[in-house]
Amino acid sequence: MSKLFSQNTKQKKNIISIRGPFNFKKYPELFFDYIQYLKLKRKSYKFSVMDGDGLDVGDKFDKAVKNQELGARTFAEKVYNIFNPIKPLLYERRKEFVESTWNAVFQNKSFAELDNHQIDFLVGLIDCGYIYVLKKKYYIKDKHNGDRDYQTMQYIDIDKMKKLMQKRAKKSIL
Fold first, then answer.
1. Which end of the chain has fewer CB within 10 Å, C or N?
2. Which positions ≥6 away from 135 have C-beta within 8 Å?
3. Are 168 and 32 in contact (CB under 8 A)?
4. Tens-of-pLDDT digits for all 174 residues of the chain?
5. Which pTM was predicted?
6. CA–CA separation, 94 and 143 (whole Å)
7. Phi, psi at residue 153, to the nearest 5°?
8. Would you call 92 helix, strand, or coil by DSSP?
């Protein structure tokens, strides 16, 4: 499960730590959507724990789950829009990284036609917690845990990520 927290260092930098190996420096446009998705995911998890402990959370749990599902779908659409034109090879984690093609997994469907499992697969490409992962080049390498390990910790400077996004936006306009 991905964890997220912010901290301010002595240099007044806004740093976020994320558990997960995806290299957001290559795709900064996914970073802020991923953060939003994680916040919604954590909120629904919090209410599910409270509900499981017998606390009366009423409609809050249902609302949090719906928001989390909508957040996952929104994030998955962003992932789809970035990777569908590229159609990278995918690897099944459960079968010792057996190759699959993008079209075999997503069946040349438009995003609107994808089922819930395929939406989860798209989110999992970034989270590395589902069945499929991308090639190693899309992830950072953790010297302790190895490649594509969802336990990898990253510390990301939010201001640098914003600058990367602005630089990308300028390039796409030109």
1. C
2. 88, 89, 91
3. no
4. 344 544 444 455 677 666 678 888 888 889 888 888 888 888 777 766 665 555 566 677 778 778 878 888 999 999 999 999 999 999 887 767 688 899 999 999 999 999 999 999 999 999 877 888 888 888 887 665 555 555 666 777 777 778 877 777 766 665
5. 0.74
6. 22
7. -100, 135
8. strand
